[in-house]
Design goal:
Layout lengths: L1 E5 L4 H10 L5 H4 L6 E4 L4 E6 L1 H10 L4 E5 H7 L4 E5 L5 E6 L8 E4 L2 H10 L5 E4 L6 H5 L4 E6 L3 H5 L4 E8 L1 E5 L2
Parallel strand pairs: 1-3, 1-4, 7-8, 7-9
Antiparallel strand pairs: 2-3, 4-11, 5-11, 6-9, 6-10
The site of 1-O-pyrophosphono-5-O-phosphono-alpha-D-ribofuranose has 13 residues, from strand 9 and helix 7.
Amino acid sequence: IRIALTKGRLESKTIDMLERLGYDCTNARKKGRKLIMPIGNGEIEVVLAKAADVVTYVESGVCDMGVVGKDTIMEKGGTFYEVADLGFGSMALTKRSLYCFHNLTIASKYVNVAKNFFEQKSMDVDIVKIEGSVELAPVLGLADAIVDIVETGTTLKENGLVVAEDVCPVSARLIVNI
Ligand code: PRP
């Protein structure tokens, strides 16, 4: 079985889960720059990929399963079965900065999620796609607010921002190809 795991914040929690299930994950813990490695007795092959690419690899069938955040699923969509909420990596997509009802400019990596969120509120906003460190956009004056992931809240705090409203809870999901 080949499982695509999201590199980064979900990676170690997924490896922890596989170890709890009894698989020897030494290879994954000492991976260096390797992107594909066997775990257990070799019955599982772990592929480390960027979140959106996990969906692509599962959709195409080159990976049997994937572990990816609900935030990516909501943003990217796709054709696959979402079979389990793994319960970890719980985060909230959050909009912040002061609420005003005209000419709001919103910065986000999650432009589709942001668009749907404000459409449901019947609010007309301008959305600017930012690839990372989205907190910079309001700090630099490019945007009034952002829609982004909050996990520990440290990034918000250290950049002088606050949560204005929760958009939705998100956590890691197990997906399989159709
Ligand atoms: C995410 C998110 C926030 C931060 C939140 O960025 O965009 O910036 O994590 O985490 P915290 O609440 O624990 O501080 P990520 O680290 O994935 O990197 P990126 O900004 O390059 O997307």
